[in-house]
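Format notes (please read before filing issues)

Several people have asked whether sequences and structure tokens are stored in separate files. They are not. Every record keeps both together, in the order shown below: the sequence lines, then the token lines. Line labels are part of the format and must not be stripped during preprocessing.
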Amino acid sequence: MDNNETLDLLTRQFRERYDGMAEICAAAEEAGRWDKNRDGSMEGFAFAALSGAILSLIVSDGNVGERETAYLNSAFGFDYTVDDLLGLFRFSASDLRENAVQNVTDTVRALDEADPAAGAEFCTLLKLACRIISESDDGVAENERALISRLEEAAE
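Then the structure lines:
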């Protein structure tokens, strides 16, 4: 299996697992384990932290590639261009990097409290996304590698 086939497979797995997490979140809301009125959608809460972590990874090295942009769009249904992500980097890269790890930590804690299966699935998704982004990049910079490590540690 070549790298593109591997990335396509990983992206399909990500989508399938994400759909599974969405079902877990819906069940937790229905069972009253998540206060949707106070905290909003449980899935939306998880999605915000997950997408923020992934965006921070992509822009962390200041080099946004076509492949990583394509896999980001495929995994999340986004429609970003490389220029869009470079613009994001120019305006908010430091905020994204500084807040991504704390957002992941807070999200894992909140999801675990509501439903440990949701927290575990979030962690699996984050690690899978880190792999997809790092493998779709034309080279992983040291600061990007460090951010991946910090994100994965936060998802333990």
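For reference, the curators noted about this record: Residues 3-29+42-154 form one domain. The chain has a mean pLDDT of 86.
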